[in-house]
Amino acid sequence: MKRIALVTGVAGGIGYATAEKLAGEGIAVVGMDILPQMPRPVHGEFTYVAGDLSKAEDRKKFVETALSLYQKIDILVNVAGVAPRVRSDLLEMTEESYDFVMNINTKGTLFLTQLVAGEMRKHAGEHQAIVNISSMSAYTSSVNRGEYCISKAGVSMITTLFADRLAEYGIAVNEIRPGIIATGMTDKVKEKYDALIGNGLLPISRWGTPEDVAAAVWTLVNGSLPYVTGQSLDVDGGFHIRRL
Q: Catalytic residue positions?
């Protein structure tokens, strides 16, 4: 029977690459993003839902669309995330910026996962998986975007909590921590990261790609790791390695 995947943040970057990878592997994908329509096609069985992850009614519409089409959900990949609209020093960070980032990256991810998990456990026993895309910022300080770091640390705990709670249903919950990935979010800081990578920041000395992350997602959802849950996978070119 065909497996069904929900992917957020599907209009670009990691979300789009993930939808392409899963659809290419024969999975039916239902994707959500805030744009009115998809800017480019996904090659495979794909349905698009326009919605704002921070809004409960849009999360509900997303899940109900998938259930109306397929009557079940096997995979959830939480990709959608935003950076602060303006980077500012931690001592000047505003509540408005904090709420904007947290409502999407953390609150939206939490309550979409809760909603989907409730549906998944109705047909427990089939291979099901949830993958959260957090960031190396979950453990790396960036004092000019503290709200983003806090939001991604929250995603790490969401992973741990749901891995614990859903294990009895056979639902694996894991996390991917991307490093420096070439997406729209990093366009504005390309020169900075070009210089850091050129000066040896990463053992694997190149930018990561959305496809690198999508390949990791596939590894976590394809059934090849049945005894793994609550894990964080660093897709970061070795950034996390402490070196002298």
A: 148
